[in-house]
User: Fold this.
Amino acid sequence: MTAVLDGIGAVVVGRAGFVAETISASVDPGLLQSADAAEARGETVVWVGWQSQVRGAVAVADTVKSTSVQAIAVFRDLGLRPMRLTGDNTQAAGAVARHTGIAAEDVRAEVLPADKVAVDAARLSPAGPQVRRD
Assistant:
């Protein structure tokens, strides 16, 4: 995402590669190391940069609702195969999936919003999963 702020100019927020490419800057190795540690804990790192410099990063994490584990179990009881389709990094997506009981093979991470609708359900399982659209 890009916004223009008075006195600063274009401020870019997003994945490290997007921010670095958009403002033509490299990412400080120490900041990258901190971001890698956050992602290893299952957090998603959002980068911020402006005026040809990556200025920082913010680590965020999903909070799983207390009813999510039960909801996933109900879906399974109904014969459905729950999956996690997310823009989160692989580690964060896996952490939420493990917590909620979604199998690792049913996790798709780092999917851009525009690409989420393009996921081909027929390719997700040899059994040919059902996609419910209400």
About this structure: Strands lie at 2-5, 9-14, 44-50, 53-60, 84-85, 107-108. DSSP finds six helices and six strands in the chain. The chain has two domains: 2-60, 68-124.
